[in-house]
Specification:
about 450 residues, alpha+beta, MutS, DNA mismatch repair protein, domain I, Alpha-Beta Plaits, Dna Ligase, domain 1, 3 domains, about 20% strand, binds magnesium ion
């Protein structure tokens, strides 16, 4: 039931973020069809397109040459991820001023908890004015157009944003069911197509259809998810915003080399260096891995791959790189084509639970102490103060490979939060307390019906 205690969650999302960033960086592009494309020679795919470009049928995932064919006078921009991150940071710093609780979920998207605003801030203004002022400020100060949706849960707020784009839409308490009635369940982010088909088999294509089904049936078919979906479809899903920090399930890297590499030793050096970077990232997140895989793509796009599963979770660079080198040599043994791309994946991750020891009794402990010391040195001094042999060799090999860094512009939530709330001090020290309080609130309100 909509009550005074209804949660008010705002979802904010940059419009065609990467393309908007390019326009913010070069205002002369304003008004023109703009898309951002990957690939080394403009032969990649479109990763973002602005509204003007979309009018020509250009969409994410399309080949860049096809985009050019559809819109010859449009502008193809190469991605500038470092700039996007910086713009994203500025945007989130503004958002932060509008609510005590901000949960970033990607480079250009986040949730703000506006739950108690009606009692404080909104006495002198309306939610719409408040949110539009926020959008206006991001546009004025950062040059990025953002859309937003305000509703009783994060899930619903996201749907409101999608419906509003470009613009702002508020779903007032009590109007949830009506808003959802005609909308397809497909719009729910993260809904598996298997579930969508199962719902279709029950005759439920829209949320309105779902709302009419008996809740017991949904519970029977889909368990707790079905029950939640039924509540959601009936406008009774009232969910507080949690500062949820999930451990990652995997970490991967996908690198297309600056040029096709005929020298396999150089390719191996690059592979080990990337692995070292990933291992360092896992270490920072206090995780270790049990499985890894390596895929090498050649210049003719054929691939070879191999993997390894450790008996125990591993966190030592030396052990992980040792296994990788074996895989590399095995899969590349009878190959001869130049290497185009190297993909690495670590998964089956477990929490890392080592006590810092300086000397250690076992080999594993001593290695851990060494790795920890190296990591700390790199953190305290400049980056790369301490390098592994592979990294050093790499640095001498090719200037272009220097300082391998994250290729993916999407910062994990954990890191994003760290960036927003502090530096190296534990920025989530307050988290347990907030979570406990919210869990209590959530218990009181979530399933009240
Ligand atoms: Mg976006």
């Amino acid at each position: 039931m909509p009550t005074d205690s209804s949660n008010r969650i705002l979802h904010v999302d940059g419009d065609s973020f990467f393309a908007s960033c390019e326009i913010a960086l070069d205002p002369q592009l304003a008004g023109r069809p703009v898309w951002v494309g990957g690939g080394r020679n403009g032969d990649g795919i479109v990763i973002a397109a602005n509204r003007a470009a979309k009018k020509f049928g250009i969409e994410t995932g399309m080949a860049c040459f096809e985009a050019k064919r559809r819109c010859p006078h449009g502008v193809l921009c190469r991605p500038h991820y470092d700039d996007y991150r910086e713009i994203s940071g500025k945007m989130f710093r503004i958002l932060e001023e509008y609510s005590p609780t901000l949960v970033p979920i990607s480079i250009d998207e986040g949730f703000l908890d506006l739950t108690t605003m009606d009692r404080h801030v909104w006495r002198n203004t309306t939610p719409a004015d408040y949110v539009n002022a926020l959008r206006e400020r991001v546009w004025r100060e950062v040059g990025i157009p953002v859309s937003a949706g305000l509703a009783s849960s994060a899930r619903l707020a996201k749907l409101a944003t999608d419906a509003a784009k470009p613009g702002f839409l508020e779903i007032p308490a009590g109007a949830e069911k009506e808003f959802l009635a005609q909308r397809s369940v497909r719009e729910l982010s993260g809904i598996a197509s298997r579930r969508e088909r199962s719902l279709g088999a029950l005759g439920a294509k829209t949320f309105g259809d779902v709302a009419k089904l008996p809740s017991t049936l949904l519970r029977q078919r889909f368990g707790i998810w079905g029950q939640q979906l039924w509540l959601f479809a009936n406008g009774r899903w009232n969910e507080p915003l949690l500062l949820e920090v999930k451990d990652r399930a995997s970490i991967s890297s996908n690198t297309t080399l600056p040029r096709d590499e005929p020298d396999y030793e150089a390719a191996l050096t690059f592979t080990l260096s990337e692995a070292t970077r990933l291992t360092g990232q896992l270490r920072r997140e206090q995780l270790q891995l049990r499985e890894l895989a390596l895929t090498i793509r050649f210049n003719d796009f054929s691939e070879v791959s191999g993997g390894h599963r450790f008996h125990e979770p591993q966190f030592q660079n030396s052990v992980i790189n040792g296994a990788l080198e074996k895989i590399f040599r095995a899969i590349m043994d009878s190959q001869f084509k130049p290497v185009r791309q190297i993909r690495l994946g670590f998964w089956n991750l477990a929490r890392l639970d080592t006590h810092p020891t300086l000397w250690g009794k076992t080999d594993a402990e001593r290695w851990a102490a060494l790795d920890d010391a190296a990591l700390k040195l790199n953190k305290d001094f400049q980056k790369d103060a301490v390098m592994t042999g592979a990294q050093l060799a790499l640095r001498q090999l090719d200037d272009g490979h220097r300082n391998p860094k994250a290729k993916c512009p999407f910062v994990p939530q954990r890191e994003m939060i760290r960036k927003l709330w502090g530096t190296d001090a534990d920025p989530l020290a307050h988290k347990g307390e907030v979570e406990k309080r919210l869990a209590k609130v959530s218990k009181q309100h979530q399933f009240r019906h």
